Amino acid sequence: MAREPRTRGLRLDQPREARRALISRPQVDPEAFGRLSERFARFMGTARFLVYMTAFIALWLAWNVLAPKPLQFDPYTFTFMTLLLSLQASYAAPLILLAQNRQTDRDRVISEQDRARDERALADTEYLTREVASLRIALREVATRDFVRSELRTLLEELDQRDRVPEPDEEELDAAPPASA
Known about the structure:
By secondary structure, the chain is mainly α. It has helices at residues 30-44, 47-66, 79-141, 145-164, 170-175.
């Protein structure tokens, strides 16, 4: 007897059915989040941020060292401040990396556009070079201005020589014996 395949349970040859989650996941626009991370990374790279952070830490230290004991909220080892700075760094690093990745993507697109523009410029330059070369070859076969002038001078000189040679008069033509053949 042949065994019948089980219809219930896990089948590896078919994809699982999509399950609906009990709690829906929040939808985050990646473009908006990327812009926010770029603004954050850009701000963290400024002198203003360094001044603000230095002032904040100086105030924190001054308060917790100089204030009366009951008003101090973070005693000498400054554990809470260390925790806050670690938290800030743990959020800053991924946001800065995200901003760098977006900048890398933009640079890649710009590089591809530059490469395509350079290829078109090279193709246009090669085409124009071939056209100039063909025009030079064609101009060798075409009469140039200097060539036409020299030919016209030669013709004018020949016409001047014809005008200088006296043509026989009609009387001389009548008196001349006929040429025998």
